[in-house]
Structure formats: C-alpha cells, structure tokens
TrEMBL record:
It comes from Bacillus taeanensis. Keywords: Membrane, Transmembrane, Transmembrane helix. Pfam families: DUF1189. This is DUF1189 domain-containing protein. The chain crosses the membrane at residues 161-192, 204-227, 233-250.
Length: 260
C-alpha cells in the first residue's frame, strides 16, 4: 500500500476496523506510530483534557457554592474559634461516626468515644478520630493564623484555576500514559507472538500496541463526558483482542509481517 494513503485519519479508521491493515501500518516503522500517538494526543487528548478541566471546574464551583451557603460564619483569632449558630452544631451523625462543632465548652472530647470515627471542633482545638484505636488532635495556636469565613469566600474564586490546571495535566498525562500502556501491552503480547510464531520485532509490537489503543481511548474519552471511565478489564480486553488478531496477520511471514 502507498504510504501516502496512510494518513492520520486513515490509520484511525483502520486501527478500529481492519486488522488486515495492521501489517501495512506497522511496516511504516515505530517513528510513524509515535507520530500517530502525538496526533492522537492533539485530537482526543485535547478533548479529554477539556472535558476533565470542565468537570473539575464544575465540581469546584459546586463546592464554592456549598461553602458560601452551608459553612457557618466563624472567626479564628489568637488561637480561639468562635462560630455563629446554635451549639453544639452536629454536621453529620451516624451509628459509627460523629462530626460536631462546639465552642461553648459544654461538650467533652469523650463524646467521640462511642463512635468509630469522627471529628470534634472545639474552641481551641480539633480532635479527629480515625478508628477505634487512633485519635489525634491539634490546637489552633499551632496554625498561627487568623481566619474568617469572609477570607475563605474571598479565596474561593482562585480555586477555579484548578480546572485549567487539571486539563493541562491531563493532556500530558494522556500522552505519557498511552506510551507507558503501549509498552506494557507490547511486553505481554510477546506471548501472542510466540503462540502465533509471527516474525515480528518488539518495535513492531510496540507500534501495533499504539494502534490497538485507538478504540479503547475513544470509548474512554466519550465516557469521560459523563464522569465515567472505561472499566479496566474492558479497556485492556479490547486492546489485547486487537493485538491477538493483529499478530495473527503476521503468522508465517518473515518480512515484518507483510502479507504476500
């Protein structure tokens, strides 16, 4: 096949639909496969990054609104906390956990003893119980800061930058993650190569792994729109299915798997 016909979108389609084209794509070499991964990152990776950034931003906005509406007005000054509202303030209570605020001094830290986990915020300290055997506490004097609810509300808008940061991180993680996945898949696919007795180098396996990742990656990006990810067993199950059928094309072929 003419290499000029194997452009990015042709490879994208062949990678998902035609195992018989894998030998032609792999014969182009690992450099072309790597370029395909770069272009895949610039397209699907960018989409994934934008979706991730948007979802994180929406989550942060929801958190910001929750803080503004639900967090009681408070002042932390000179190591002492004052909170507006009726005390004690029970934030959450179940049979096994308790999260409570009391700045009046009427509630003892022993109140946590009957729960497996929880937290008690007092006037001068916080007591945290992580299990029946582990309890920790720290005093507000250790923080050496003065703080009010208004301060937190003022800082909240800066958290929205985390959405953009998450998107940028996801873009680079997408590329590095797929390179690493292709390497692991290549190593494990040595078993398939041995079974089929295919004359295919490790570089060829690595190239094939990059192309075999196409469909699972597309599914993963689409599902990320709804805050879902492709289950790992389905993701890699598809990849190894593609690797198996791709390697079968090389059976009894000596020249880089090119079919006669």
């Amino acid at each position: 096949m003419n290499d000029q016909k194997l452009n990015f979108f042709t490879k994208l389609w062949y990678s998902m639909t035609q195992f018989s084209k894998y030998p032609d794509m792999i014969k182009q070499g690992i450099g072309k496969a790597f370029l395909y991964l770069v272009l895949l990152t610039l397209t699907l990776g960018t989409v994934h990054a934008v979706i991730t950034g948007y979802n994180v931003s929406q989550m942060i906005r929801g958190f910001n609104e929750l803080v503004k509406q639900e967090l009681p007005a408070f002042t932390l000054q000179n190591g002492e906390l004052s909170v507006e509202g009726e005390m004690p303030m029970v934030l959450e209570e179940t049979q096994s956990s308790l999260f409570m605020i009391d700045v009046t001094g009427e509630i003892s830290s022993d109140v946590l003893d009957q729960y497996e986990e929880g937290a008690l915020v007092l006037k001068d300290r916080v007591i945290m119980k992580e299990s029946s055997y582990e309890k920790r506490e720290f005093t507000f004097n250790e923080l050496e800061i003065n703080l009010t609810k208004e301060d937190i509300v003022t800082w909240l808008p800066y958290l929205e930058w985390l959405g953009a940061a998450a998107g940028i991180f996801m873009f680079f993680f997408f590329f590095i993650g797929k390179m690493s996945s292709a390497l692991v898949i290549s190593v494990m696919s040595l078993i398939f190569r041995a079974i089929e007795k295919a004359s295919l180098s490790f570089g060829g396996l690595y190239s094939m792994a990059i192309y075999a990742l196409t469909l699972p990656v597309i599914l993963d990006v689409l599902l990320s729109i709804f805050w879902y990810g492709t289950p790992w067993y389905l993701y890699y199950g598809i990849v190894f299915l593609y690797m198996w059928f791709g390697i079968k094309q090389y059976k009894n072929i000596d020249d880089w798997g090119k079919e006669s």
